[in-house]
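Lab notebook, bench 4. Still working through the backlog of constructs that have no structural model yet. Next entry is a single chain of 272 residues. Request: give me the structure tokens for it.
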Amino acid sequence: MRAAVDTRPATALLPTFATAAPAAIEESFPYGYRERLDWDEFAHRVYLIDDSRAAYPIYRAASRLTAGHNVTLADVLALCEAGELPRLMAALRPDDPGAGEQEPTDVLAILVRDALTRTGAVRWHMTWTGSARACAADGTVVDPDGIAGPRPTEPGEVLAGIGQMRSGASAYDVLLLPDGLVLAENPGAHQPGGWTDIHQLARFGSARLIAERHRFISVTSIAEARVSGQLTTKVALRLTDGTKIALRSRLSSPQLNEGSDRVFKEQLTRVG
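Model written out:
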């Protein structure tokens, strides 16, 4: 015969646990001059330190671009609005070798979270049943990592992309947008503003911002478009001003997403 399972917490065995536990701590641990913190304050301090450490190399990189000494979140956001996010990511790498694996939105989320924690707009609380939770001043549970907003490139803004397409002696990472093509000549990841691959290029900002920083060919300026090839993709464009542009991918050319070559053919053959 199996005994019934006692589901009561272990503290039920010691009715005076609420007073015995603090007394045991007082006897066994010499506090001395050390500050005493409750669990919620302890959790908040831990997150505050971790967030500050994560934000420091980003602010340090931003200061090199702005020649400023006390760079704030507002300064970093101003850099992004000015289209300097690629340069910021490039400047970040000497301080943070792992930055190449981070997405720009991850970097911005770190700064937003640090600002929220440091100013006290968000406080962290111990839950005991999982990770600490962040709460606003009114007690509402919030997601600090989600407050940074949506990804810079919203789903659907960039339809497809093919990297390392040759056009004469130049190589371009080509993005297909609903209203045209972006031809981005990659200066190399080791150069300011450079990127490592077409995936990183597509994450550098909104489709509008990417188009502003690189050569943009509007759909309305394309008189004729032909896409051919099986193993590789060949794009031939004739613009309304008579200019001809020929692009050809290589077998090793990376695609932004699976089937980008098919999307190029489907979309461009409708143009002109």
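Notes after review: The longest helix spans residues 39-66. Helices lie at 17-28, 39-66, 73-81, 85-92, 104-119, 198-202, 207-213, 260-268. Flag for follow-up if needed.
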